[in-house]
Amino acid sequence: MSPTQQSSMRLVPLLALGQIFGWGTTYYMPSVLAPALSRDLGLDPTGIYLGVTIMVAIGGLAAPTAGRLIDTHGAARFMPVAPAAIGLGHLLVAAVPSATTWYVAWVLHGIAMPLGLTLAATTFLTRRGAADARRTIGIMTLLVGFAPSAFWPLTALLEAAFDWRGTLLVYGAIELLVLLPLQIWIGRRWTDREPETSAPDPRAPSTEDAAADAPPPVLTGTTRAIAITAMVIAFTAQGFASWGLPLHVIRLFEDLGLDHGTAVTVAAASGAATIGARTLEVAFGHRLHPLTTTGLAITVLTPMLALLGSPLDPLTSAWIFIVVWSGANGILAVLRMTLPLSLFGANAYGTLVGRMSLPQNLAFSAAPAVFAVVIDRGGPTAALWLAIAASLTALVAAVVLARIARPPEVAAPH
Questions:
Q1: Among the residues of 25-98, which ranges form H helices?
Q2: Which of 72, 139, 196, 257 maximizes the CB count within 10 A of its CB?
Q3: Which tens digit of pLDDT belongs to each residue from 95-130?
Q4: In 3D, which of 393, 359, 358, 379 has the Cα closest to residue 241?
């Protein structure tokens, strides 16, 4: 491992800490505090969760500009924006609780998304060492996957001890007094003003590693535009289903015949399946080109959804679905950040991913509400068909992308 790679590996857990707190205290927070917030702010549950929709939508709208700024000035300069904006948002709602301050806080959280959370962090790792970025981004995403497991119980404990306002005060203080100085220190300790490439490993790579790390195909003009469009469609359609369906999967399982307790137990395995799949991607993903892994993961989505409507025993179908479908989507969440690097290189990575994030985040923010309307009007089966349609769209786009951007063949050593 080169010195640059070693330095990046030390950086990963520090970046992951900021990501875990950032997502844990925003996106996952209403799942625990919604009843108390609804009572004190005068909003129904839909109004409380509208804050999350605002965050994701604002994050998408700001992402193209954020990507350009990060490419121009470096991600390290903007990383402190996340804890500053999130911390101020929490303190605002805790100090002046109202529906207005609730939504203002989520606007601040939305600004934090591209400038301090996923986009900035992945671009930081890419600019630090493009050759090892797939692995470092995978490890960081794996660690961030523990955010709900850590923050759901922590938030519940804090609410029991200090009520919801005290909980937000604690989270705001941690963001401003711990994570903000940490992000400033990271920016001074690790620079990313100019993209860096890792020094070559003196060991000769295996054929498998060489295939996985093959240089990006030369794509220009119309071909490049088609490839980017296909990639955006594939990940947007896949993400639409993976963000929209899980919130209603318990009801879907109950519609198949499972009792409520069993449906909850099966659905709860989603997190473990996601983390397990991401662990496999980190450990063995280097053996396959990201384009191949993307195609395989997207291919299994539709059969898993169709399995829920098959004659197979409902409990067996539900277990197979939750493990394979959640695992595939967990891997695709990593590939959404690493595939653009493999296909188009590190140059202007932040700008490209920022542009991709606009349609993706808008689709992700709308997905829960769209699936809720579909279920209310057509039942869980209608939602299942919607997810199948989205997954088939993703598969068609992935096939187009694979035909256009197939990596060059790597000859086996003699």
A1: 30-41, 45-73, 81-95
A2: 139
A3: 999 999 999 999 999 999 998 888 888 888 888 775
A4: 393
**Rounded distance between C-alpha atoms, residue 101 and residue 96, angstroms:** 7
Residues contacting 396, CB < 8 A, separation 6+: none
Q: Which of 139, 87, 145, 164 is nearest to 274 (CA)?
A: 145
Tokens of 400: 């187009």
Helix (H, G, I), strand (E, B) or coil at 353: helix
Distances in Å between the alpha carbon of 62 and those of 78, 300, 389?
13, 32, 29
| Distance from chain centroid for Cα 293 | 17
> Cα separation of 230 and 407, whole Å?
16
Distance CA 36, CA 382 (A): 32
Alpha carbon of 18 to those of 4, 180, 181, 253, 272: distances in Å?
21, 9, 11, 35, 22
pLDDT in tens, 137-191: 888 888 888 888 788 889 999 999 999 999 999 999 999 999 999 999 998 888 7
- Answer yes or no: are the C-beta atoms of 380 and 255 closer than 8 Å: yes
Q: Which of 311, 291, 113, 270 is nearest to 211 (CA)?
A: 291
pTM score:
0.81
Q: Are 108 and 86 in contact (CB under 8 A)?
A: yes
The residue among 208, 210, 195 whose CA lies nearest residue 341 is 195
**Euclidean distance between CA atoms 119 and 335, whole angstroms:** 13
Compute the 3-state secondary structure of the chain and give helix, strand, coil in percent, each to the nearest 5. Answer: 80, 0, 20
Closest alpha carbon to 372 in 45, 37, 28: 45
